[in-house]
């Protein structure tokens, strides 16, 4: 069956609707960037509990674990009364001491991701990029947590206006087998190409995002499926 020919006004209406959807999507991402990073930080922090028993079997690991807990306590107590930036200042020295004293410990590896988030919340995005890179370098190639750190790197680069580099990290997430953080990557890539005027590529990324199950973004994309098909 031949495709129905759209009138010019219908085409314009569809494109306008698509652009409106892109703008609302961008607003959603912007408003939720910190929540995404917070979720990633909390997720990685939970590793401490998973490894807790094994850590206590080794003296150095035990000491590193205790030191990390003390740093977290200092940060949280300062955060409650003085905010993100003061919490960051209060914990910086202790984080650095942890990495220097126990560089190969599990707690130091977990601490890098926590520290990266601490820097991010304090709006020291350049430092966050540096810390997250170290955390990435410490991971095994097939680590389940790699996509989370790649996402952290992407968002941190977005905050310092390095959009191309951020999209490279989102593309790395899209290429990995793990489904973690893929919905966010697809949506950001869709917005990125739309802003460049490459609507075909934009639609392709949105369509990939629509296939991600149980995504906080998929419902929004599917509700606008008429704009991206």
How large, in whole angstroms, is the Cα Rg? 21 Å
Q: Helical percent range? A: over 70%
Q: Give a short account of the largest sheet.
A: none
How does the helix and strand content classify structurally?
A: mainly alpha
Low-confidence stretches: 1-6, 46-50
Span between N and C termini?
18 Å
Principal-axes geometry comes out as: elongated
Task: Offer a quick outline of the entry.
By secondary structure, the chain is an all-alpha fold. The protein has helices spanning 8-55, 59-82, 84-101, 106-121, 125-137, 146-159, 163-175, 182-195, 199-210, 218-223, 225-228.
List keywords for this structure.
11 helices, elongated
Overview of this protein structure:
The chain has eleven helices and no strands. The protein has about 230 residues and is an all-alpha fold. Helix 1 packs across helix 6 (about 145-160), helix 3 (about 85-100) runs antiparallel to helix 4 (about 105-120) and helix 8 packs antiparallel against helix 9. The longest helix is centred in the first third of the chain and has 48 residues, at about 10-55. The protein starts with 7 loop residues before the first helix and ends with a helix. The model is unreliable at about 1-5 and about 45-50 (pLDDT under 50).
């Amino acid at each position: 069956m031949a495709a129905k020919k759209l009138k010019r006004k219908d085409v314009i209406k569809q494109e306008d609707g698509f652009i409106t959807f892109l703008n609302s999507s961008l607003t959603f991402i912007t408003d939720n960037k910190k929540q995404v990073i917070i979720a990633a930080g909390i997720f990685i922090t939970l590793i401490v509990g998973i490894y807790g028993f094994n850590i206590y079997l080794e003296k150095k690991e035990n000491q590193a674990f205790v030191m990390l807990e003390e740093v977290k306590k200092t940060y949280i107590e300062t955060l409650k009364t003085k905010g993100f930036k003061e919490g960051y200042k209060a914990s910086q020295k202790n984080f650095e001491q942890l990495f220097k004293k126990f560089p190969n410990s599990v707690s130091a590896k977990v601490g890098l991701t926590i520290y990266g988030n601490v820097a991010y919340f304090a709006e020291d995005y350049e430092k966050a990029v540096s810390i997250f890179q170290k955390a990435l370098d410490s991971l095994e190639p097939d680590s389940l947590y790699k996509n989370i750190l790649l996402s952290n790197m992407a968002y941190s680069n977005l905050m310092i206006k390095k959009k191309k580099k951020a999209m490279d990290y989102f593309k790395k997430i899209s290429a990995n087998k793990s489904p973690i953080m893929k919905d966010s990557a697809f949506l950001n890539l869709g917005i990125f190409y739309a802003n460049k005027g490459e609507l075909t590529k934009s639609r392709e990324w949105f369509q990939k995002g629509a296939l991600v199950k149980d995504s906080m973004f998929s419902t929004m994309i599917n509700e606008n499926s008429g704009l991206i098909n």
